[in-house]
């Protein structure tokens, strides 16, 4: 007879924690790609100063958004580290 195996699926808390950790790892990559978008803008009829101003507003707004997302993800990751696993799991 084969030894008893654990559950095939992960617990919901473990699964969500791993997905949050994945999001935290992908955030710098996504941010880098999004910051490069103004390089692709071609303003027809707009002066160079207008394009530069729009690009700077875009980059600053994106920076604020990425900082907020990183703070939220960090908060949830820290909160899940402080929780104790339920009794009987992993014992």
Sheet bearing the most strands, described?
A: none
Estimate the strand proportion. under 5%
The gyration radius over C-alpha positions equals 22 Å
Q: Which ranges are low-confidence, i.e. pLDDT below 50, for 5 or more consecutive residues? A: none
Order of helices and strands: HH
Class by SSE composition = mainly alpha
Tell me the overall shape: elongated
Number of structural domains? 1
Average of per-residue pLDDT values: 82
> What distance lies between the first and last C-alpha atoms, to the nearest angstrom?
23 Å
| Extended strand count | 0
Fraction of residues in helices?
Answer: 55-70%
Number of helices: 2
Keywords: Membrane, Transmembrane, Transmembrane helix
Transmembrane segments: 20-41, 53-77
Structure at a glance:
The chain has 91 residues and is mainly alpha-helical. Helix content is 65%, strand content 0%. It has helices at residues 12-35, 48-82.
What does this structure look like?
This protein is mainly alpha-helical and 91 residues long. The protein has one domain (12-82). The protein has 2 helices and no strands. The protein has helices at residues 12-35, 48-82. α1 (12-35) packs antiparallel against α2. The two termini are 23 Å apart. The relative contact order is 0.13. The model has no long low-confidence stretch (mean pLDDT 82).
């Amino acid at each position: 007879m084969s030894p008893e195996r654990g559950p095939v699926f992960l617990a919901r808390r473990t699964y969500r924690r791993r997905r949050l950790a994945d999001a935290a790892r992908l955030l710098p990559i996504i941010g880098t790609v999004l910051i490069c978008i103004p390089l692709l803008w071609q303003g027809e009829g707009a002066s160079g100063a207008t394009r530069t101003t729009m690009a700077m507003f875009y980059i600053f707004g994106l920076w604020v958004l990425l900082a907020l997302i990183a703070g939220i993800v960090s908060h949830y990751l820290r909160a899940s580290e402080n929780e104790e696993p339920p009794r009987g799991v992993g014992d």
